[in-house]
């Protein structure tokens, strides 16, 4: 319907321009206003722009309402899932609260935090529904815009009548040299009077329609802007609250982790290894004189990793002495 109306308006403008060009050629066009002048064309364009602007704003308001309702619907389903998860965490923490392990306490903290987060989300839903969607829906269904559109349609009809009457006046003027001059003069006078009346009515309705459409446009722009600002502010407050809850939860979990993690004792490790040769069955002199002392099971050996140390040198000397005695026995 809107496309048909626009097409008809364009056709009327084309016809008016053709009439204007024809009257100029016939010499019947002057400053008497038979056709729309520049001011009238400008005002007509202004009314058309206001009509387009208010229509676009109304469609945008409908889009906001639909998207807000869709957001609330999807987010409400998420709330159900998250609240079940929070209940599971709290139930596990309550059932195992006597345990000394950290997991039940952490689960209870997460469940409590998630419950608080979902309360914040529910508050956001209420703000969007009550303070954003509902006022915008009232603007969309308000009769003020429809009343302004009726004035615009009335103005368009009067404009068509003015154009048609201007054509009739031009036709009467073209007949001035034909037939009865008195009769033609009367008809021309009546046609011109009707044209003046129509033009006067058209200008009055045009002003009224322009004022009404301008008021609707200003209201649409202001109200929609305020509702969007309110929605953004509500979302900002929601995310800040959620962030604060998550930071507190993370701090508590980190603190619990630090308290439950055992601290390992620091032991110093020596860089060198001592070498001990212990003979539990005999003294050191017997060990030197007995070649079988090398294979004694009671002896304990600790091999040094640092060559050149004092204990390593002593071990080497004892080993050479045992080998020397062993070779002597073979001989």
Structure description:
With 331 residues, the chain is an all-alpha fold. The chain has helices spanning 2-26, 38-95, 103-140, 143-174, 181-260, 284-289, 310-330. It is rod-shaped.
Which whole number gives the mean pLDDT? Answer: 78
Give the helices and strands as they follow along the chain.
Answer: HHHHHHH
Low-pLDDT regions: 23-34, 263-306
Structural class: mainly alpha
Largest sheet: none
> What shape does the CA trace take?
rod-shaped
- How much of the sequence lies in strands comes to under 5%
How helical, in percent, are the residues?
over 70%
* Beta strands, count: 0
Radius of gyration: 51 Å
Number of helices: 7
Distance between the termini: 129 Å
Task: For this entry, give a set of tags.
single chain; 331 residues; mainly alpha; rod-shaped
Question: How are the SSEs placed, and which strands pair?
Answer:
Elements: H1 2-26, H2 38-95, H3 103-140, H4 143-174, H5 181-260, H6 284-289, H7 310-330
